[in-house]
């Protein structure tokens, strides 16, 4: 134990002149826009080499260009995260980018496909469960050879959940179930890979954050999966209250950048003794 603590302390410092994630290689899924893009850019600014994984190649490449424009290192991997072939490419590119080392994985990719319980189809159910639970599981499993190491290097997994998973939400039986499921997966990773390998695993559960999933559905955001268009957002008629934030003490939604900063915190040495935790980021909603 003493030797292991010495190794860990050797990788840590109370100051971080080269960035909180210096010399680390990170995978971020759904990194072409929104929270994922802000996380990728922020990780790069803190010294990480970043794999920008997204369904949309053009958007992923745009994020890579932004990172490289400021001197950072990144590579784009485009493809459906629900495909094993995409997962394998992500892992291979990460290992290549990091010289055989991978330190962090942020399972952020996701969207909603809402419907009231009695009208939710099997396809809606399976798609959302596969996207938010099976795909993160498969990616983490594929990363096992790079995470189950006793070299004392910092390694962490951050899975993105939602307050819908913690409390349920009308019209989101599939999404709520999946987002609760990812919390169970996170805790299991912490218990299995923490003792021998020091891997930390945490979940961040977002409330209202300004993304395409929370904007008005009438604005026309959509995602295409298997040739089928899925409309994203919340119908204007369902927006809560005059401002939508009467139950949020801060009286506003969070920004994608604010969301990204909480992911950075969990990935960084600032959370070196935090594992198996679900961090609610809600502006105080639910207290």
TrEMBL record:
InterPro entries xref list: KR_dom (IPR057326), NAD(P)-bd_dom_sf (IPR036291), Sc_DH/Rdtase_CS (IPR020904), SDR_fam (IPR002347)
Domain (Ketoreductase) ranges: 24-196
GO biological process: fatty acid biosynthetic process
SMART domains in the cross-refs: PKS_KR
GO molecular function: oxidoreductase activity, acting on the CH-OH group of donors, NAD or NADP as acceptor; quinone binding
Record-linked Pfam families: adh_short
Protein origin, superkingdom: Eukaryota
Coiled coil stretches, renumbered: none
UniProt keywords, alphabetically: NADP, Oxidoreductase
PANTHER family per record: 3-OXOACYL-[ACYL-CARRIER-PROTEIN] REDUCTASE, SHORT-CHAIN DEHYDROGENASES/REDUCTASES FAMILY MEMBER
Family the entry assigns: Belongs to the short-chain dehydrogenases/reductases (SDR) family.
Listed name of the protein: Similar to 3-oxoacyl-[acyl-carrier-protein] reductase FabG acc. no. Q9X248
């Amino acid at each position: 134990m003493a030797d292991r603590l010495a190794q860990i302390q050797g990788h840590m410092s109370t100051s971080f002149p080269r960035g909180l994630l210096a010399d680390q290689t990170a995978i971020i899924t759904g990194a072409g826009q929104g929270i994922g893009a802000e996380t990728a850019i922020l990780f790069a600014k803190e010294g990480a080499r970043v794999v920008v994984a997204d369904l949309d190649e053009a958007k992923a490449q745009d994020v890579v260009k932004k990172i490289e424009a400021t001197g950072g290192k990144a590579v784009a991997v485009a493809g459906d995260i629900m495909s094993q072939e995409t997962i394998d490419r992500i892992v291979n590119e990460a290992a290549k980018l990091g010289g055989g080392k991978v330190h962090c994985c942020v399972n952020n990719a996701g969207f909603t496909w809402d419907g009231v319980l009695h009208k939710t189809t099997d396809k809606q159910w399976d798609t959302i469960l596969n996207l938010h639970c099976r795909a993160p599981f498969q990616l983490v499993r594929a990363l096992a050879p790079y995470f189950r190491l006793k070299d004392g290097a910092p390694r962490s997994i951050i899975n993105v959940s939602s307050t819908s998973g913690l409390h349920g939400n009308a019209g989101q039986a599939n999404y709520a179930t999946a987002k609760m499921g990812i919390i169970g997966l996170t805790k299991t990773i912490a218990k299995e890979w923490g003792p021998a390998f020091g891997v930390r695993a945490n979940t961040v559960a977002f409330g209202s954050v300004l993304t395409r999933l929370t904007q008005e559905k009438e604005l026309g955001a959509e995602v295409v999966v298997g040739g089928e268009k899925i409309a994203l957002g919340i119908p204007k008629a369902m927006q809560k209250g005059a401002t939508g934030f009467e139950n949020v003490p801060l009286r506003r939604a969070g920004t994608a950048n604010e969301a990204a900063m909480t992911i950075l915190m969990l990935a960084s040495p600032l959370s070196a003794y935090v594992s198996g935790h679900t961090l609610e980021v809600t502006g105080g909603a639910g207290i």
